[in-house]
Write a structure and sequence with these properties.
InterPro entries (chain A): Peptide/Ni-bd, SBP_5, SBP_5_dom
CATH topology of chain B: MetI-like fold
Mean pLDDT of chain B: 86
Distance between the termini of chain A: 37 Å
Structural class of chain A: alpha+beta
Helix content of chain B: over 70%
Family (chain A): Belongs to the bacterial solute-binding protein 5 family.
CATH class of the largest domain in chain A: Alpha Beta
Number of strands of chain B: 2
Low-confidence stretches of chain B: 1-18
Strand content of chain A: 15-25%
Signal peptide (chain A): 1-24
Shape of chain B: elongated
Number of strands of chain A: 20
Low-confidence stretches of chain A: 1-23
CATH superfamily of chain B: MetI-like
Number of domains of chain A: 2
Radius of gyration of chain B: 22 Å
Largest sheet of chain B: 2 strands, antiparallel
Protein name (chain A): Peptide/nickel transport system substrate-binding protein
Helix content of chain A: 25-40%
CATH class of chain B: Mainly Alpha
Strand content of chain B: under 5%
CATH architecture of chain B: Orthogonal Bundle
Shape of chain A: globular
CATH topology of the largest domain in chain A: D-Maltodextrin-Binding Protein, domain 2
Number of helices of chain B: 14
Largest sheet of chain A: 12 strands, mixed
Oligomer: heterodimer
Domain Solute-binding protein family (chain A): 71-450
Largest interface: A-B, 31 and 23 residues
Chain lengths: 537, 309
């Protein structure tokens, strides 16, 4: 920020007062204070929440998701599995890119070819294209995709990939090849998209201006095929610290903010703003080392106590999840009994959180041979999840009450994740957001036996292993039939939870705050989509 | 502190012009002439007693997680706990009684301040006095190291060190010692350079006393007055630095909050009107630092020969 002279400070309130629009919400401009800035305009650069949210405004995907992550037709009118390894997609006719070019199957092929060509991607989208064997385009509005193995999540994968215009980058008649495509022209670099002339998609908005660290300005796409956007112009300002973000909202600098801190809810409501909260697909959990025979963070016993299911059950019963939700999260969370909140795909309605029962917990510990408990250190990040360090402390408090003297090792997220990945913690607190919004994602990440070749259990750093769960998840990942697949996932989830594979704590709830004249429906994926911000009725 | 203050007296007796006992008494009397200093000293004594007696007078052991109840979290001052006693200063978000946490926090803050200063003082004074006595290349080398050290902001060095060491009271002390020893080395060298030209050192040399005896028994005790002044002020600095580090989240473990960490915890709640979590530890911290500084200022006036009447 530039330094202002004292005299300028004196004028500031006046300037703010003059800039205030009339009470009724006009629909010319919307200013949003976002909590984290997109790392690139390139829709395929970095698979992370803020980028994916921004991408949806400019580059649409074949299939969209609603607030509960149910699939909706977007650029694809319909899709079906012809057989176990073939998907057929019918494209929407008469769709135009923001530069006036028509959208056809060629643009889809071009996009699938371009995703693996992105350089230096911190978190790549190739996981969504890797299984594609071949793509055929019998006519400009029909696509047939063959996959190497059955891919029931193919439609979900298609919700993550924004479609580029082949013509903008000088591509010819693109042919898909698994090991490289033909007639690709000059594939763009990620930084090319900073130029609004190159950032061409079919979305409801087009990029007007991008100044890193300051703002992203979007403008309504007049030729949009769907419902016309309400806002003519949208300014997204990254304000990464929570305090200044709230202050910007209260001062009228922005109309809406992401993620106001729980502590400030009363103040925001008191100042006449609306707060909405929505359950997210992010679970906060504690994972326990169930692999080593002697685990580094446990003292007072020679064994690894977490290999005993009775100890894991005792720990789960020692946690008062409702108290954490009420006291630490200010009621803005939901106690968890599974890895995803009901009614997302693969969840069970009666999967209730494990009840708080310290007496039963002590008894189980005594049965398992630890009547005097042991000493434990829990690793936790202190700047990654909402109140993460405070939640870990509350859990430590509860463990200590049943006789397990618990310490907290709190650190910044980058240190935490690198130490966790080296298995330095016997117990750690972390979170997992299932971006596909269905159970196979969560189970595969957190519970399935770690296996480098299949990519299974990639975030299962407690190294829990249960052949039955592995088999069920594996089968589900091959099953195209939705009903059957859901049943398999429900079963796998129940087995893992009954075995206390990890200790679920709560689902994060995402809050938004905005002017009384606006309305917004909370989303499970935590995205802020301007298209869904409407003037209040 | 009083023990250290007493040590220069016998050594000073070596000087022909001074009468040992009367010098100390004169200094003590001069100290008590300032009412502000007396208030500071009284406040400091009270705080030290409170800190030392924390485990006996605090209603709760805030570091024993089994005694905390999360259901008592963020209660305002004067609220009653589920177990029936009163939280006179309220609780933090973990249900920690703030009165108890402040008493224990004072113990950490004063303890870390005192211990780090004593160690840094010992290290710095030894290095300084040796450099001054040896002179030449050794002196040059040591003083360039000191210059280098002093050219970095203390907080920056401490942050880097703690990022490497990890959290813990012992590690904070180590970091503070590393950050502070240079001040003492410089101070002691300054006065030792003056003292070593005096007659009593010459006399000691003529008696062929061993070097280490001359340095540590004759030279060092006579350099103590400025050192005491610097040390007193540095205790306050050390406490402030420890609080800063804890506030930034790299100091003490989260389950054993010091004053700085309590203030940091409350910072999250300041906008929402839960003032007590930050305010009371803040008052305690300010009181401790002001008291030490009042005492330190007066000591400087008393021990500075240029200001003596």
């Amino acid at each position: 920020m530039k330094k202002l002279k004292p005299a300028a400070y004196a004028l500031l309130p006046l300037a703010v007062a003059m800039a205030q629009p009339a009470a009724a919400q006009d629909t010319k401009e919307l200013k949003v204070g976002v909590a984290s800035e997109a790392t690139s305009i390139d829709p395929h650069f970095h698979n992370v929440g803020q980028n994916n949210a921004l991408r949806r405004h400019i580059f649409e995907s074949l299939i969209a998701t609603d607030a509960n992550q149910k699939l909706l037709p977007a650029l694809a009118e319909s899709w079906k599995a012809v057989d176990d390894t073939t998907w057929e997609i019918k494209l929407r006719p008469d769709v135009k890119f923001s530069n006036g070019e028509a959208f056809t199957a060629r643009d889809y092929v071009y996009t699938m070819c371009r995703v693996p060509l992105v350089e230096n991607s911190p978190s790549s989208f190739t996981v969504f294209t890797r299984g594609i064997e071949s793509i055929e385009t019998p006519d400009p509005l029909t696509i047939r995709v063959k996959t190497a193995t059955p891919q029931p999540l193919f439609p979900n994968n298609m919700t993550t990939l924004g479609i580029l215009s082949a013509a903008v980058f000088g591509a010819g008649d693109v042919k898909y090849g698994k090991d490289g495509c033909e007639n690709m022209g000059t594939p763009p670099k990620s930084s090319d998209f900073n130029d609004p002339a190159k950032a061409v998609g079919t979305g409801p908005f087009k990029l007007k201006e991008y100044t890193r660290g300051t703002h992203i300005i979007l403008e309504a796409n007049e030729g949009y095929w769907g419902e016309k956007p309400v806002w003519q112009r949208v300014v997204m300002r990254p304000i990464t610290s929570a305090g200044p973000r709230v202050a910007a909202l209260l001062a009228g600098d922005v109309d809406m903010i992401e993620n106001p801190p729980i502590q400030d809810f009363d103040k925001i409501k008191g100042a006449g703003f609306t707060l909405v909260e929505g359950l997210s697909n992010r679970i906060i959990y504690i994972h326990l080392d169930q692999f080593e025979d002697k685990t580094p963070g446990v003292k007072g016993t020679d064994k690894n106590p977490f290999k005993d299911v009775r100890v894991r059950e005792a720990l789960s019963k020692a946690i008062n999840r409702e108290a954490i939700v009420e006291r630490i999260m200010g009621g803005v969370a939901q106690a968890a009994g599974e890895l995803l909140p009901y009614p997302l795909f693969g969840t069970t309605k009666d999967a209730k959180p494990v009840a708080y029962d310290p007496e039963a917990s002590k008894k189980l510990l005594a049965e398992a041979g630890y009547p005097n408990g042991f000493e434990l250190t829990i690793g936790t990040p202190n700047d990654r999840y909402i109140n993460d360090e405070k939640v870990a402390q509350a859990v430590a408090q509860m463990f200590t009450r049943v006789g397990i003297k618990t310490n907290i090792d709190a650190m910044t997220a980058s240190t935490f994740f690198s130490r966790r990945n080296k298995h330095e913690f016997s117990a750690y607190l972390a979170g997992w957001g299932a971006d596909s919004g269905e159970m196979s994602n969560s189970l595969n990440a957190l519970v399935v036996t770690p296996n480098k070749d299949t990519g299974g259990g990639h975030t299962n750093r407690g190294r829990y292993s249960n052949a039955e769960v592995d088999a069920l998840v594996m089968e589900a990942q091959r099953t195209i039939d939705d009903a059957k697949r859901e049943e398999l996932l429900q079963k796998a989830s129940k087995i893992a939870m009954d075995d206390y594979a990890l200790l679920p704590l709560h689902f994060e709830v995402t809050p938004w705050a905005f002017k009384k004249t606006l309305s917004y429906t909370p989303r499970v994926d935590q995205y802020t989509l301007v298209t869904e911000v409407k003037p209040a009725q | 502190m009083s023990e250290q203050a007493a040590t220069p007296a016998p050594a000073a007796a070596a000087r022909p012009t001074d009468k040992g006992e009367s010098l100390l008494l004169r200094h003590v009397a001069a100290f008590f002439e300032s009412p502000l200093a007396v208030i500071g000293l009284a406040g400091l004594v009270v705080l030290v007693i409170l800190a030392l007696a924390a485990s006996f007078i605090a209603p709760q052991n805030p570091y024993d997680l089994a005694q905390l109840d999360i259901m008592d979290g963020t209660l305002p001052p004067g609220s009653e706990s589920l177990a029936g006693y009163t939280y006179w200063l309220g609780t933090d978000e973990q249900g920690r009684d703030l009165l108890s946490a402040i008493l224990y926090g004072l113990r950490i803050s004063l303890g870390v301040g005192a211990i780090s200063v004593v160690i840094a003082c010992a290290v710095g004074a030894s290095v300084g006095v040796i450099a001054a006595y040896a002179g030449g290349r050794i002196d040059n080398f040591v003083m360039r190291v000191v210059d280098l050290q002093l050219s970095f902001p203390a907080i920056l060095v401490a942050l880097v060190l703690l990022a490497v060491f990890g959290r813990g009271v012992d590690k904070v002390i180590i970091a503070l010692v590393i950050v502070q020893w240079a001040y003492y080395a410089r101070t002691v060298r300054g006065s030792a350079l003056v003292e070593r030209r005096r007659d009593y050192i010459e006399a000691a040399r003529c008696l062929a006393l061993p070097k280490n005896r001359i340095v540590f028994r004759h030279l060092l005790p006579n350099c103590l007055p400025p050192l005491i002044v610097v040390a007193t002020v540095q205790v306050a600095h050390a406490i402030a630095l420890e609080s800063t580090l804890s506030f930034l989240g790299v100091g003490v473990p989260v389950t054993e909050p010091s004053l700085g960490m309590l203030i940091a915890k409350g910072y999250d709640y300041l906008l929402s009107g839960k003032y007590w979590i930050s305010t009371f530890p803040g008052i305690a911290l300010v009181a401790a630092i002001v008291a030490i500084n009042l005492v330190g200022d007066r000591l400087r006036d008393v021990l500075n020969p240029r200001l003596s009447r």
